[in-house]
Design brief:
The chain is α/β, with parallel strands linked by helices and about 230 residues long. It contains eight helices and seven strands; from the N terminus they run αβαααβαβαβββααβ. Strands 1-2-3-4-5-7-6 form a seven-stranded parallel β-sheet. Strand 3, helix 6 and strand 4 form a beta-alpha-beta unit. Helix 5 crosses helix 6. The radius of gyration is 17 Å and the shape is globular. About 35% of the residues are buried. The mean pLDDT is about 95.
């Protein structure tokens, strides 16, 4: 399939500038679990980042709506493969989440047909992941599905090979993500410097939040990644 046709079917990929590759964003308003968690104090979705900033701009919202509608297209898998196959690293849903077991099965098919791409799928839809497994579904080695904990400073979800949590004052569980202290050039500021920047309200100018050379989220050997609340 040609790229022009692929983009007509599945729309374009998103381009989170602080990550090492492309991504695919859907409307956060259509998250099943996330939509409920946004109203829960202390949840990881309270104050959802994907409901503000550039995500709230009209063109961005229109693009995400087109991507959501495209999932039902019979050639969606082929269209996604055509766009992703040259990517080394790919993140599913920098905004939004899984819609159904059928949606997850299609993502698995994309990963299977792009073996040279490392895929990372963070999700709060643990019921969908469980249902997929009960139906006999498996994940290829190049797709890491991380089931996310629901509450800040909460425990990691049980019964999954790969998970993630968010901490603020609690303990780091497993691998602590230091992207919140990482600059675009890969330099990492100290915790004390980060706190000083935060106190001075200078975090935006510091341009932190980059992955740098870390790829823990894509690494199946890393059981849990703990993200600093942002």
């Amino acid at each position: 399939m040609q790229l022009i046709q692929a983009k007509e079917i599945a729309h374009t990929l998103s381009n989170p500038s602080k990550m090492p590759g492309k991504a695919y964003s859907l409307p956060a308003t259509e998250c099943h679990v996330g939509a409920r968690l946004r109203g829960v104090p202390g949840s990881v979705c309270e104050g959802c980042y994907a409901m503000k900033g550039a995500y709230a701009w009209r063109p961005t919202k229109q693009a995400m709506a087109k991507r959501l509608a495209s999932i039902a297209h019979p050639q969606w898998v082929d269209a996604m493969v055509a766009q992703i196959k040259r990517q080394q690293w790919f993140r599913w849903h920098d905004s939004g989440d899984l819609q159904s077991v059928a949606h997850l099965a299609k993502i698995v098919a994309v990963a299977e047909q792009t073996p040279n791409t490392s895929h990372w799928l963070p999700t709060r839809e643990k019921a969908i992941v469980k249902a997929y497994g009960r139906a006999g579904g498996t994940f290829p080695s190049n797709l890491v599905v991380r089931v996310s904990g629901a509450m800040v400073d909460g425990n990691a979800p049980k019964g999954f090979s790969n998970t993630s949590t968010v901490y603020e004052s609690g303990d780091v569980i497993g691998k602590g993500c230091i992207a919140y202290r990482t600059k675009a050039n890969g330099d990492v500021v100290s915790e004390s410097e980060f706190q000083a920047l935060k106190k001075a309200k200078a975090l935006k100018d510091a341009d932190l939040g980059h992955c740098g050379d870390c790829r823990a989220c894509w690494d199946a050997r890393v059981q849990n990644v703990s993200y600093h609340k942002h």
